[in-house]
UniProtKB/TrEMBL annotation:
The active site is at 116, 316. SUPFAM superfamilies: Acid proteases. It comes from the Eukaryota. GO terms for molecular function: aspartic-type endopeptidase activity; DNA binding. Belongs to the peptidase A1 family. The lineage of its organism: Eukaryota, Viridiplantae, Streptophyta, Embryophyta, Tracheophyta. Keywords: Aspartyl protease, DNA-binding, Hydrolase, Protease, Signal. This is Peptidase A1 domain-containing protein. Residues 1-30 are annotated as: Disordered.
Amino acid sequence: MEQTRQVLHKVETTPLLPTSSFSDHENKSHQTQKLSFTLHPRSSILSHENNCENYTSLTLARLARDSARVNSISLSVAKPHQFESPLTSGAGQGSGEYFARIGVGQPVKQTYFVIDTGSDITWLQCNPCADCYHQSDPIFDPSGSSTYKPLSCSSDRCAALQISACSQAGTCLYQVSYGDGSSTSGDFATETVTFGGGTRSVPDIALGCGHDNEGLFVGAAGLLGLGGGALSLPSQIKATSFSYCLVDRDSTSSSTLEFNSAQPADSILAPLLKNSAINTYYYVGLTGFNVGGNDVAIPVGTFEIGNDGRGGVIVDSGTAVTRLRTEAYNPLRDAFRQMTQDLPSASGFALFDTCYDLSSIKRVKVPTVSLRFAGGKTLDLRGNNFLIPVSDAGIYCFAFAPTGGQLSILGNIQQQGTRVSYNLATKSVGFSPNKC
């Protein structure tokens, strides 16, 4: 897909192939303060996804995972002061779409983690297993690592857990529960984490060593918590920034997750906002949209965070489809429909209500969709960031969906092909297209 005029894109209508390819990440001189992981899309790691009956089945499975995640996030924000158990992101529903290859322990054991900006706790499956699911790599055995150290119940990091307990030996136990009843529990400990295939190690990282992991987890060894809380990986390594670039989820290409690297000079900046009710999520100052170069009229205050902590817009690496409050979604959808009346329509698909039958069209022009941020900056989305294939029969759908709640979520379909950089020092998030 390429931009043909200021307000138009061309979209290739070959649903079983990636709509664009991405070059390898640019080699940079080694900086001791910079840490980097390789990122892989879910489809390149989990071969069973490629064995789905067809692309329609694969899409439906993805959307089911996605909806479970959104429900979990929405519930955690809707009741920020009523936690009886931690209700984090939807990774428990198997909704992780991007995996990082990370080394744990000494000697180093390389394994895959789901990256999640909607969670704080990093954890992985550990032997001995009371209940463990299938993962791509051997399950980590802490008894074989010289750098594994259980945390005591009296430690500050144990106290920072939302749910913790003491073992008979006085060591810290953790539990994280997810929205569908999935959970992970075990020992809370510190370990050495190795970045970049072994080029840099960071000791004393607090993580969960899960001996009982139940529910619909799949593939990865565990979860890498990139949220804004005190126990997240960025907080523990005192990162001033981190960034990622998500390749097309049907691609076999990879990219990087980086800490303390310079923000691309061409980044379109938006403010990161604080929600005093919850510090895990990254709230962004989204104010509206343009379609075909024209402003979309939405009510003032639609995306504001309320005094009760509800509302606002979060940027999330694990949610696929952007969810918008109906007050914003309906006018955005209507504006897009108005400018695509010449395209053959198709029936709605799962959560999508605006779809097109492009099976007989080799290339199609669609209006540019842009995100508007506080401060006046605008991010133009590529065509495959908002019009995506959902079947192997040439059906494409508008990749936004309404939510009945007050929280809106900027999902990873809209982030693909863009380096998203979180500057934790200046409280801003940058979007730099074509930096994978």
